[in-house]
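sry for the spam today, last one i promise. struct tokens for design, 330 residues
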């Protein structure tokens, strides 16, 4: 059995970026970029795997590794300020790219089929200290509170109680292959995110969307059904005739099995993302602060998960194995 090396991963990622560029306009109208998005996306993917998160350290790495810089397509070494600015600006591009990869991969096998998809949110703890709710409401930062992420907010986690930080919202296939993402502060709820993702969800080839009780919304369920998409949730607090009818629906063996499978699909995926980002400890604490940085950071985690699973599929490696990708870059 052959195993991919660093060059194989980067070459494959660049190939996907080239195809993405043919289908999407990622450049802004006006003066063209000195540095292409594809160069920065590949560079930041490598830096993430190497656990290099400080922009000053990224600049030093490019300065020292001039040959690698040329291979990534940089005409010259970007400044630290440029690296920081472009990192923050790539979130929307990565969102679109992740969606494109999902479409690209869909014919490759059942693992990538979007007939049945799962939706969930995972919380990541903010870097630095917590901002207590009372102080936060009064917009008061205690004098001794240093390195505080003032963008982060509070939300309750089923696993870690209250978390001060951010939420990663993922849509994935029944095999745990991510197809869409959204990142926001922790307090932003599932319903708000579903409103944002609705256009992409309804335009995708999805038959069933499975979520926990936070996604229960009978108005949305009806709207989706008219579009041929079944939104399936436990609806734990649904009452009345509508609730009773829905509970009878989700008790059907096939639908019940979809709900029961939810945790075994989505939770291991969040573990893979955390493993690739290096956020497994301390309630998945982030190495960066500020919403603009965190959005891109978590989006790169999703992109790298797609890269790992696709290369595993191509090379015949265990589908959910991320250790090889980490090994060749660390």
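last one done:
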């Amino acid at each position: 059995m052959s195993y991919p090396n660093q060059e194989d991963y980067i070459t494959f990622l660049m190939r996907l970026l080239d195809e993405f560029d043919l289908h999407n306009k990622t450049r802004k109208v006006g003066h063209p970029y000195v540095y292409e998005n594809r160069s920065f996306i590949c560079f930041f993917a490598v830096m993430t795997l190497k656990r290099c998160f400080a922009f000053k350290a990224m600049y030093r790495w490019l300065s020292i590794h001039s040959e690698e810089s040329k291979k990534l397509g940089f005409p010259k070494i970007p400044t630290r300020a440029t690296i920081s600015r472009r990192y923050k600006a790539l979130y929307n591009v990565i969102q679109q790219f992740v969606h494109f990869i999902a479409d690209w991969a869909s014919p490759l096998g059942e693992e990538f089929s979007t007939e049945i998809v799962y939706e969930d949110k995972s919380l990541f703890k903010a870097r630095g200290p917590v901002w207590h709710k009372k102080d936060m409401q009064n917009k008061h930062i205690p004098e001794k509170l240093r390195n505080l992420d003032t963008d982060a907010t509070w939300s309750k986690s089923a696993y870690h109680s209250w978390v001060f930080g951010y939420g990663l919202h993922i849509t994935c296939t029944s095999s745990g292959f991510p197809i869409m993402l959204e990142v926001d502060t922790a307090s932003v709820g599932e319903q708000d995110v579903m409103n944002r993702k609705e256009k992409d969800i309804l335009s995708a080839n999805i038959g069933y969307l499975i979520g926990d009780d936070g996604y229960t919304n009978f108005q949305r369920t009806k709207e989706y059904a008219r579009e041929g998409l079944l939104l399936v949730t436990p609806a734990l607090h649904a009452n009345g005739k509508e609730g009773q009818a829905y509970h009878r629906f989700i008790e059907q063996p096939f639908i019940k099995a979809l709900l029961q499978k939810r945790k075994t699909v989505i939770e291991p995926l969040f573990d893979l993302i955390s493993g690739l980002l290096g956020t497994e400890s301390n309630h998945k604490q982030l190495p960066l602060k500020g919403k603009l940085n965190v959005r891109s950071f978590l989006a790169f985690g999703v992109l790298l998960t797609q890269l790992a699973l696709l290369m595993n599929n191509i090379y015949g490696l265990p589908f959910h194995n991320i250790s090889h990708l980490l090994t060749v870059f660390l």
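The beta strands are 116-125, 153-157, 161-173, 178-185, 208-210, 230-232. ok im logging off now
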